[in-house]
Specification:
About 30% of the residues lie in helices and about 20% in strands. The protein is of the alpha/beta class and about 230 residues long. The strands form three sheets. Strands 6, 7, 8, 9, 10 and 11 form a six-stranded mixed β-sheet that branches. A three-stranded mixed β-sheet has the order 2-4-3. The protein has a two-stranded parallel ribbon with strand order 1-5. Strand 10, helix 5 and strand 11 form a beta-alpha-beta unit. Helix 1 crosses helix 3 and helix 2 packs across helix 3.
């Protein structure tokens, strides 16, 4: 018995489109079609640079399904470009989400209720779920894995719980890139009470400082603490 087809989630703004080689009328060309779900898979993987697990979560499919979708999409685009075919973007069983369709969920590295200045060695992560008005409606605590956080699988764990943003004190560029590749945006420069930091971010009064880990120069014994990328 075949498995039921699951509609893929795609962002709003995708419209039927046509691309073709210059100087040749479309009716004189072979045509290939890139479905909306295939186009969305390309956007997430190749434009946003998300890991497949994070991209699959965005689309509401399994990692295996996402892998097959993005692989088939790349073949379609390559066929159109290399063989000079007319490329249509259209069709597919998808669910279109507007920009407000993805609820915000903010994680804060914390220790004793305060923002921990060192993401890689925090005691735990406080995760705050926000409603459409960006008010905190729920909170949970996720224990930090042993060892350096940026070397662990914490980014994947947070992504699977639906975390969309990380509000932290200090963080190296490597850790920022890993979180972003899991679909988690990073804001640095927070301090004080963890919940208050999440509320300030939600209210738009906390912006990314752009500062890497303070006090961790290149001579630090652990390689700049939380700056590892893998």
């Amino acid at each position: 018995m075949s498995r039921p087809f699951c509609e893929r989630r795609v962002r709003s703004g995708l419209q039927p489109s046509l691309f073709k080689p210059a100087g040749i009328q479309a009716r004189n060309l072979q045509h290939v079609t890139l479905r909306f779900d295939q186009a969305e898979a390309l956007r997430l993987a190749d434009l946003e640079g998300l890991y497949q697990e994070a991209a699959a979560l965005r689309m509401g499919v399994s990692r295996q399904t996402f892998g097959r979708t993005v692989e088939s999409a790349r073949r379609v685009v390559a066929d159109a470009i290399i063989n000079g075919k007319c490329l249509h973007i259209d069709g597919g069983e998808v669910t279109v989400e507007d920009k407000g369709g993805r609820r915000m969920k903010v994680a804060v590295p914390a220790r004793d209720g305060l923002v921990d200045a060192h993401f890689g060695h925090c005691e735990h992560f406080m995760v705050y779920s926000l409603d459409k008005e960006k008010k905190i409606v729920a909170e949970e605590k996720i224990d930090s894995p042993e060892g350096c956080g940026c070397k662990s699988n914490i980014a994947g764990i947070l992504a699977r719980t639906g975390v969309t943003h990380m509000v932290a004190g200090n963080m190296g560029e490597g850790a920022v890139h890993v979180l972003q590749a899991h679909g988690i945006d990073v804001v640095r420069g927070a301090s004080g009470n963890a919940r208050s930091a999440a509320e300030r971010f939600a209210a738009g009064t906390l912006a990314d400082s752009g500062e890497p880990c303070a006090g961790h120069g290149s001579g630090h014994a652990h390689g700049a603490d939380c700056g590892h990328a893998d």
